[in-house]
Hints:
The protein is of the alpha/beta class and 321 residues long. The chain has helices spanning 18-29, 51-58, 74-84, 104-114, 133-139, 147-152, 191-194, 205-211, 233-248, 266-277, 280-293, 301-320, and strands spanning 8-14, 38-44, 64-68, 89-92, 97-99, 120-122, 160-163, 168-171, 183-186, 216-219, 225-227. Among the domains are: 1-97, Alpha-Beta Complex (Spore Coat Polysaccharide Biosynthesis Protein SpsA, Chain A); 234-320, no CATH class. It has a nine-stranded mixed sheet with strand order 3-2-1-4-9-6-10-8-7, with helices on both faces. Strands 5-11 form a two-stranded antiparallel ribbon. Helix 1 runs parallel beside helix 2 (51-58) and helix 9 runs parallel beside helix 12.
Amino acid sequence: MPPIKPILSITIPTYNEELDLKNCLSSISRQNCSKDLFEIIIVDNFSEDNTLKVVEEFSEKINISILKNKIKDAEVSKMIGFKKSKGELFMYMDADMKLADSEFIKKMLLPFKEDKRIVGNFVKFVVSKKQPLLTRVLSYDEFQRDPIFKFFTIGIKDILVKNKGHYWLCKCSQKNIPPQGLMIYRKELIEKYARNKIQLIDNEIPAVLVEEGNYYFAYVSDTGIEHLILRSLKELWNKRVRNLQRTYFPNEGTRKYKWVDWEKDWPKVFLWLLYTNSFFLPILTSIIKMFKYEDSCFLSEPILNLISTYSIIYGVLKNKL
């Protein structure tokens, strides 16, 4: 009897991820669904630690395979995993992500079964009080946006159409696309787009789907992913600069989604610079959020704003000069 074709393919790029990957794969192995429903594709950048030994530990529990990539670029690894995947649906996970509960896959696949118009399901980030404070600051936003991205982009509330009980039906347009790349989507709909691409730039996907006339998405609010996105301000600076260098500017001319138009949005850029450098307003905002969410992590938000803002300015100037 031939093997059952998986419904969902999950690609995980790795490089020296032994500490985080175990939590990631544990959360997947605990899913309350048939293990035949999904496959895991590890795309490893020739790790020098015990990353692959961690993968081997889970090889008997879940359907998992390993591919190698010499180019240390997560977006390249995502594309390798995408092109080798067998599922009807596709998503990626970073090694420092984990599924928030054992029902994640069942809940996230349901909208695709109930409504054939739905082409993608946005994944929500969730907060854990065990996370570092900088990660918590970002995770209170469903798309894990830091304040500067939140200022320039739309959120999930802007595209909600109808509460379907177990999920929300969402509708996007070319002028109304959220900055969310972490999602599950119908693989066949972007195969043509991905054919000649080396990198799979995740937040491009909603824009690609909408451009092809696919406007309906889903959002499951009672599950999500925990993402250990930040441990330090230095890491924040490095990530912002690296993302601009590796993915934003090399693809600037062909990008479908741009979170800011550097020529037209200069009034908003000016307003943001006024706000973040005023000190008083960011501090006041952080105090309000601290009481609203009952979490002192927001006291770090003013300095996070400054680092995020000036890392982007540095990255832009470094590319333009």
